[in-house]
Automatic annotation (TrEMBL):
<dbReference type="GO" id="GO:0005886">
    <property type="term" value="C:plasma membrane"/>
</dbReference>
<dbReference type="InterPro" id="IPR046956">
    <property type="entry name" value="RLP23-like"/>
</dbReference>
<keyword id="KW-1003">Cell membrane</keyword>
<keyword id="KW-0808">Transferase</keyword>
<dbReference type="InterPro" id="IPR003591">
    <property type="entry name" value="Leu-rich_rpt_typical-subtyp"/>
</dbReference>
<keyword id="KW-0418">Kinase</keyword>
<dbReference type="InterPro" id="IPR032675">
    <property type="entry name" value="LRR_dom_sf"/>
</dbReference>
<dbReference type="InterPro" id="IPR001611">
    <property type="entry name" value="Leu-rich_rpt"/>
</dbReference>
<keyword id="KW-0433">Leucine-rich repeat</keyword>
<keyword id="KW-0732">Signal</keyword>
<dbReference type="Pfam" id="PF13855">
    <property type="entry name" value="LRR_8"/>
</dbReference>
<comment type="similarity">
    <text>Belongs to the RLP family.</text>
</comment>
<keyword id="KW-0677">Repeat</keyword>
<keyword id="KW-0325">Glycoprotein</keyword>
<keyword id="KW-0472">Membrane</keyword>
<protein>
    <submittedName>
        <fullName>LRR receptor-like serine threonine-protein kinase</fullName>
    </submittedName>
</protein>
<keyword id="KW-0812">Transmembrane</keyword>
Length: 427
């Protein structure tokens, strides 16, 4: 990402009349986009995406209509609030395939709208614009080539114009209607999805209600489903997973899970990469079958009423241990052995057979001064990459029963001071 620190967009670019591709995105330009860009009539690709904190803007979009072969246009985060002709200009570009105008302060467009002319449009991103009207949604019902429609945070939609649009968008693969204060039965909305190839559906942060339909043919190929924040939507997780066998990303934060527990069948859906069941009110134990989800990268079960142990099958962890785990001041046992963890050891963690590095002194000094260190029973750090000497402060871990520092790169002398207080040590 380039940083031109608020400099104006260079007007000389408009002299490059043979340009077919121009990308000035996220370059932190400020000020108006030169109308002289109308000279770039051979452009197929134009990316002028702005950046937060900079006021890239246009007062009129007439110049854009003089670039007749444009296929890709991104003016996200460009202030178009004065471009009252934006809708008619965009509609005059029949070759346009991808259009990104999110968070562009699009002004209100009065009815009647012109006849639909975007016959090649495949991706339409209008999120973050509050003046998207019901008339526009009905107008979109003509966009039969549309594959990806993003309308997140566009105000308060009503159900009827959405139903009209969805009934006609037969090639839709991705649909984002999040944060639009949508009200009504979720079945009422999804029954109108005519596409049989929908892969991404985001309904986060609305006021939908009722049971999530599990048998609609239009949803059979879903890979991403986010219903978070719709507290009155009920989900039968076993049925949903059983019918939506392509799901890789399932987000149900704050929904009502019928049955109240995580079903053991969840372990059968090994393609899952992201699973969020936080704030769903689930109870009972975490089934051991969840350890079968070897492709899982993100799991959130927080703010529930779970009981029992965390299954040992939840392994194959990598990356670093967050230092915040040291806030668990009552922790007596943490088993993270035989994973692929790396980085420095936080001072309150006990691990074996990982790839942890650093000096043992810093770890043991931290444990000996920590209030829980004095009651530590097991210290198993074998099979890591620890270095340095074994500090005499180890002798302050007076309750230690088992100690294993083997298979590291430790050095130095071992004296009586290391063991004089370890009277409970048995192994």
């Amino acid at each position: 990402m380039n940083n031109f620190s608020g400099a104006p967009v260079p007007k000389m670019i408009a002299s490059l009349v043979h340009l077919e591709y121009l990308n000035l995105s996220k370059a932190m330009f400020d000020g108006p986009i030169p109308p002289l860009f109308e000279n770039l009539s051979n452009l197929h690709y134009l990316d002028l995406q702005g950046w937060y904190g900079y006021h890239l803007h246009v007062d009129d979009l007439d110049w854009l209509s003089r670039i007749p072969s444009l296929k890709y246009l991104d003016m996200s985060l460009v202030d178009l609030s004065r471009a009252t002709n934006w809708f008619h200009v965009i509609n005059s570009l029949p070759t346009l395939e991808e259009l990104y105008l999110d968070n562009a302060n699009l002004p209100y467009v009065p009815s009647p709208l012109p006849p639909f002319n975007l016959t090649a449009i495949a991706t339409l991103e209008l999120s973050g614009n509050s003046n998207i009207t019901s008339a526009m949604l009905r107008w979109l019902s003509n966009a039969t080539s549309l594959e990806y429609l993003h309308l997140s945070g566009c105000g308060s939609f009503t159900m009827e114009p959405l139903q009209v649009a969805l009934a006609s968008l037969i090639n839709l693969k991705g649909l984002d209607l999040s944060y639009n204060s949508l009200e009504g039965e979720i079945l009422e909305l999804l029954n109108n999805v005519s596409s049989r190839g929908l892969k991404q559906l985001d309904l986060t942060g609305n006021y939908l209600s009722g049971d999530m339909p599990e048998t609609l043919q239009s949803l059979r190929h879903l890979e991403y489903l986010d219903l978070s924040g719709n507290s009155n939507v009920s989900v039968r997780m076993p049925t949903l997973l059983g019918n939506f066998t392509s799901l890789r990303d399932l987000r149900l934060l704050g929904n009502n899970l019928i049955g109240g527990e995580i079903p053991p069948i969840v372990g059968d859906f090994v393609q899952l990469e992201h699973l969020d069941l936080s704030e769903t009110g689930i109870t009972g134990e975490i089934p051991s079958s969840i350890g079968n989800l070897t492709n899982l990268e993100y799991l959130d079960l927080s703010w529930n009423h779970l009981t029992g142990d965390v299954p040992g099958s939840l392994g194959h962890l990598d990356g670093e241990i967050p230092s915040s785990i040291g806030n668990l001041t009552n922790l007596r046992y943490l088993g993270l052995s035989w994973n692929n963890l790396s980085g420095q050891i936080p001072t309150t963690i006990i691990l074996s057979h990982n790839n942890m590095g650093g000096e043992l002194t810093s770890l043991l000094d931290g444990l000996s001064t920590c209030s829980q260190g004095a009651s530590l029973l097991f210290l198993l750090l074998d099979g890591n990459n620890l270095s340095g000497i074994i500090p005499s402060s180890m002798g302050q871990l007076s309750q230690l029963q088992e100690l294993d520092l083997s298979s590291n790169s430790l050095e130095g002398n071992i004296t009586e001071a290391h063991f004089s207080n370890l009277t409970s040590l048995s192994k």
